[in-house]
Specification:
Number of domains: 1
Keywords: Membrane, Transmembrane, Transmembrane helix
Number of strands: 0
Structural class: mainly alpha
Transmembrane segments: 14-31, 43-62, 74-93, 105-123
Length: 128
């Protein structure tokens, strides 16, 4: 069973996060271009989440973070995806001129997944 996170996987993940960051920036520019001058701070800051993921996955290749096994990696990826979705939903609703609390459960779940990632990353490795 594959349980270690290798440097090759982390390098590929860093590239994926970088591409997602570029996509988030382009998406925000295009979305705000056609939104009749409206903008959202959440949508403009959405690119920071994949940037954080790229940085942490890069540091994980040098064992500088808690991400040392597959389960902590999966929880971490899920928390970033949920947080990005929260920014997107909040941004779209703000650009439309309304306010909402629909994003609050997303933030709670994203923090929960991040805590699960931290806890699972702190677990000791099983001896073979």
């Amino acid at each position: 069973m594959f349980t270690s996170v290798t440097k090759k996987t982390l390098g590929k993940s860093s590239l994926t996060y970088f591409c997602l960051m570029v996509f988030s920036i382009v998406f925000t520019i295009v979305y705000e271009r056609f939104s009749y001058g409206e903008s959202s701070a959440y949508m403009r800051a959405m690119f920071l989440i994949p940037l954080l993921g790229a940085g942490l996955s890069f540091l994980s290749g040098f064992n500088k973070t808690w991400i040392r096994n597959r389960i902590s990696w999966l929880f971490f990826n899920s928390s970033l995806a949920i947080a990005t979705s929260a920014c997107l939903i909040k941004g779209i609703i703000e650009v439309s001129g309304r306010t909402t609390t629909y994003d609050n459960p997303y933030w709670v779940v994203a923090i929960g997944f991040l805590l699960l990632s931290l806890l699972s990353g702190m677990l000791p490795k099983k001896a073979k």
